[in-house]
Amino acid sequence: MKDYKFNNPARRNPAYRDIGGLYDIYLRSERNRLANLNRANAYLKAVMVFPNYYGVAMSNLGFLRAYELINRSGFMSCDRAFMQDDLSKGVISLETRRRLKDYDFIFFSLSYENDFVNILSILSAEKIPFLSKDRNENFPLIMAGGVIAFLNPEPVAPIFDLMFIGEAEAIFPDFFEKIKSKNKPDKYEIINSSAGIKGIYVPSEYDFIFDPKNPYILNEIKIANGFPKRVARRWTDENLSFSSSVITTEFSELSNINMIEIERGCKRGCRFCSAGFIYLPLRESTIDAVNEAISATGENEKAGFVGFGTMDGKNIAKIMRFSLDSGRNFSLSSVRFDCLDENNLDMIKESGIKTVTIGIETGSERLKKMLNKVLSNENIITSVGDIVKRGITGIKLYFMFGLPYENKDDMDDTVKLVKTILKEFISASKANKRIGKLTASFSPFVPKAWTPLQWENFEDLKILRKKASYIANGLRNMPNLDVNINSLNAAFTEAFFARGSRLSTDILVYSFLNKTSIKKAAEDKGLRMDGFIRKIGTGELLPWDIIDQGVTKRYLLEEYKRALNLKTTPQCFEGCKRCGVCA
């Protein structure tokens, strides 16, 4: 679970620890662009639940987008609910303080595997049975969407009545047509009729059969009559404008930033990145739509440009220029070294950005080829100097370790690169008469569904601990350098769920009810954790094969073989039909 304590008034003033008082503070802080929306004719009640705390949820554009679309339906009003410190009195919504069990529909927004336990905490607090099969018509219809829902839904699929596979803008209109004529929705009628809606998954109608001799092997998926063999992901038309923050608040992780999605998808093809494959094809929001969202940014807010490759867009220079000319500073979710020409750097400086975030992944040229990261260390070092000379005093670098076939030489290359970057960072900073801070964060590699490296294993924790110590010792006591090693245990749990199956649901529920660890729960059920984080055979039937992402398994396997042979693949280009999405 993400840490929400960064900006929580309850941590500063005990008087606000009551959830009602805390929610009053949050509501007063919000600039809500839906505040004047007429919901007088809404006869169905929905609640959007983010299974983490308010500050994390309010920095999640997908959560806010779904909330907006439901409220704009005309026949549904939608409130918000979050994880709470105190669940003893149940879970209440932010806007109306209504209990979750009193809604017609509960929509969960899933963005992080490590939040799965919070789903159970929330349902338990409301005395709602965990599994769909145990809930009758007296309980709300419980659904889930979000990136994790259509990356690999299986570890939590038995919990939900319906799951949305793809982008809300594409699926919601058809789903809303099914339910809008029902003053009192018939839960089972909605579930059964959803079979005909592309992008909706009804987990109860699919039976996953595992090998009795080896329960980690999936033998077969049995499907009820009338339901699709694979649930096809839906995505929005390339001409649609994307989302921006309908609500901003100082208590978000991204305090007072109007997030504006300038593109969706990524053309780079990094072989570890699930978002780079499941959001294909790359689509850019129209420049008019982006400029309109910039103009709606409040006086005390920044325009925050969001995308997987924010600087890749063909209109990014025009967008940044428009924002500055409109008197609105901007922020960038991340930058790429190879997109930082002098013009872009000058506008970043003009906007007052003091820290930039860049994913490097590894200093090993060998492993870069495996990951399909093509920027050389020399170019990275030169770019750092260019950035710092513009007066940017903070650079955050992100690396991975525990990568497939990683050896000591690869780790030495990464440590050496960080030291060389630091040297250039300090040298370039002297011209500014102020030396800032370089931060290098290291996270264990977690193999994800729908990537070319999905078949690889998660590194053994004992080995990861040794590697983490090796990195930390190699960079110890370096001036102006902060080194962060992200939680190995959290990565272990993430890896367990990322490629999990319905066996993972059983372990999750057992773990929650018995107040024990995921590892102990698996052992109590006669299962080994290494069976879930192992290297997977390329011929195996995978739990997430129930989803049709558009990207073919054949293409992922080709990319996997190229990774093992240290061959890079050019990024997507117009007319490209390699992966299957645009075929």
Automatic annotation (TrEMBL):
The entry's protein name is Radical SAM protein
**A Pfam family annotated for this UniProt entry:** Radical_SAM
SUPFAM superfamilies recorded for this chain?
A: Radical SAM enzymes
**Domain named Radical SAM core: residues:** 252-482
Task: Cite the InterPro entries for this sequence.
Answer: Elp3/MiaA/NifB-like_rSAM, Radical_SAM_N2, rSAM, rSAM_horseshoe, rSAM_sf
Q: Lineage, please?
A: Bacteria, Deltaproteobacteria, Candidatus Acidulodesulfobacterales, Candidatus Acidulodesulfobacterium
The molecular function GO annotations come to:
catalytic activity; iron-sulfur cluster binding
PROSITE patterns per UniProt: RADICAL_SAM (PS51918)
